[in-house]
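Continuing the series of single-chain predictions for the mutant panel. This is the parent chain; the variants come on the following pages.
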Amino acid sequence: MPAETAYHDELGDHFAKIADTSPYNAHTDRPAMLALAGDVAGLKVLDVGCGAGHYAAELLAGGAEVVGIDGSATLLGHARERLGDRAELRMHDAEKPLDFIDDASFDGIVCALMLHYIADRQGLLRELRRVLRPGGWLLVSTTHPTADWRKFGGSYYAEDWVDRPVAGTAWAIHYRRMPLETFMNELLVAGFMLERLTEPRPTPGLQELDEAAYNKLQEAPCFLAVRLLRP
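Parent structure:
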């Protein structure tokens, strides 16, 4: 992951905090991804871009064995505070090969809201297929192409790097937007089979906590999530 796209230092601290309760993370993407994972009891799961450990904590609670990797020392610090020694956590740049992992080592892989930060997506996807056992699943969520189109304008088919401001701060996150056909075709070319696609909606509980955010997320898609299988 290019250095400018990672959540380091104060930005990492900020993200770790808001991800606890954010309408987008806690009430939209995370519930959708965990629903796609289903029953994880007894499975070995790799959390790529594990961040502050929010997804890993839920996977552990479901009975999975979890290995988490992230390129931010700040976020890994928060993950260690959240998870303790219940998960194996490792600092690793997802732009580089997963050469510390053997072939077919995992039953499932979670890539939550991180693929759009990667410059060499094809390289990462090849590595994910390699370390996933045959019949294993890969979950990927990303920013919804139409949400990016509405935000940044221009052509829907644009695949440029953009900077999205972080609400209430002077920071911006740097990532590459892509149309749906690029997102899906890269996954299929990498050798995965699509099992399910969803456009995550907010959980009903968000309506009581933040009705404006709930209504916004009900009206227009923010994320796109898929469950794929390795043949």
